[in-house]
Amino acid sequence: MALRLHAQLVTPGPFHRRHLTTKHSGGNFELSWKRTLEPDILVFVRSVSSSSIGRSYKQPWLTCTAQVQTTGAVNLAPGTPVRPTSILVVGATGTLGRQIVRRALDEGYDVRCLVRPRPAPADFLRDWGATVVNADLNKPETIPATLVGIHTVIDCATGRPEEPIKAVDWEGKVALVQCAKAMGIQKYVFYSIHNCDKHPEVPLMEIKYCTEKFLQDSGLNHIVIRLCGFMQGLIGQYAVPILEEKSVWGTDAPTRIAYMDTQDIARLTFIALRNEKINGKLLTFAGPRAWTTQEVITLCERLAGQDANVTTVPVSILRFTRQLTRFFEWTNDVADRLAFSEVLTSDVIFSVPMAETNQLLGVDAKDIVTLEKYLQDYFTNILKKLKDLKAQSKQTDIYF
Q1: Which pairs count as long-range contacts for 6-9, CB under 8 Å and 24+ apart, including other chains?
Q2: Is Disulfide bond found in the keyword set (predicted)?
Q3: What is the pLDDT along the chain (400 residues), one digit of tens a residue?
């Protein structure tokens, strides 16, 4: 579905065409950006030529289109200056978003959070001292009001599991970037996924890469940060099931992921935000070490003091399930997410050396939390609480 914003909320753009060629799996990807004047639709199509299989084809997974206007842009100058400390966090209730909000408030920023209307209000954000505004990336007309008086947008939003991937992660982001450009936002921080440029067969990763290029082409002053994985996600996936003696799901793949604490991601983000030399750059944040699933499970077992009940899912089953769901239109989105799972369970490493990035940011590698330290603190606190609860239960026993 193409998006069209009101004429006063979009910026004009002259006719131009750009090409970028990159290598992938022995073949060439030709990335074509095209903006035409009539009907003035911005198109991003990735075509693949693979010499290894002797044929050429277009990737069917994603063709992103977004309509833009060429007339009627609002004149923003002269305007009222905005404070550099005024930021809008998009996706503020998520695992990373809430850490961005807390860090920003701790560092003295004026924080506004874009939150979709929901049955359970995001009261914890208000309790922390942030301002909460209701808007929806799927409804472009609700976006402009959230950007009034904002200097910097920090975009860590992603679609909910029950939503089509393109709804928020592409169509909504196109609307947000266009509004930010039209309303004179000074800086835009976008979180992407490591290796997204290497997996066009995975819709979520292709959309992230597509959004990176769309943001770059917009002319906005921006920073793109690619992430490998969150340590916080391992708690519900491994730590809690082991403590509750429930099944832990894993695969037989040797994938390695350099998980990072979202608090460290937030801290490094604001260091980058204040460094003018990083404007327009692509950064990748990775933890100190890349871990396999089995290594994470073994670490959790040791810290919990009990064995895990591991259920192993062969990668071949994931592939078969993905292909099966492709046969039915109503399961297409399930297949898209299985494609992402398949990449995460393939023989790849989601990690990069951080020495150059740490030097650029002026960060000491010793200050980055390791997974051992993170999980040790978690299990120590949880086991202490369980011990205290058990002691309190004994003290309240009544004997006759």
Answers
A1: 6/141, 7/69, 7/71, 7/72, 7/73, 8/72, 8/73, 8/74, 8/182, 9/74, 9/140, 9/144, 9/178, 9/179, 9/182, 9/183
A2: no
A3: 333 333 333 333 332 333 333 333 333 333 333 333 233 344 444 443 333 323 332 344 455 555 444 333 444 455 678 899 999 999 999 999 999 999 999 999 999 999 988 777 789 999 999 999 999 999 999 999 999 999 999 999 988 777 777 888 999 999 999 999 999 999 999 999 998 998 887 888 899 999 999 999 999 999 999 999 999 999 998 999 999 999 887 766 678 889 999 999 999 999 999 999 999 999 999 999 999 888 999 999 999 999 988 877 665 555 544 444 344 443 334 334 434 455 655 567 889 999 999 999 999 999 999 999 999 999 999 988 876 665 554 444 443 3
Indicate the SS3 state at residue 314.
Answer: coil
**What DSSP line would sit under 129-194, residue for residue?**
T-EEEE--TTSGGGSGGGGTT-SEEEE-----TTS-HHIIIIIIHHHHHHHHHHTT-SEEEEEEET
How many beta carbons lie within 10 A of that of residue 259, not counting itself?
A: 27
Report the 3 state secondary structure along 56-117: EEECCCCCEEEECCCCCCCCCCCCCCCCCCEEEEECCCCCCHHHHHHHHHHCCCEEEEEECC
Distance (Å, whole) CA 285 – CA 259: 9
Going by their DSSP bridges, the two strands 222-227 and 187-193 should be labelled as parallel
Q: Whole-model pTM? A: 0.77
Task: With CA atoms as reference, report the closest residue to 296 among 246, 347, 255.
Answer: 255
Task: Give the tokens for residue 207.
Answer: 């959309």
CB 189 within 8 A of CB 248: no
- Tell whether the torsion through CA atoms of 228, 231, 232 and 238 is positive or negative: positive
Parallel, antiparallel, or unpaired: how do β-strands 27-35 and 41-50 relate? antiparallel
User: Which residue in this structure is represented by tokens 């871990």?
Assistant: 291
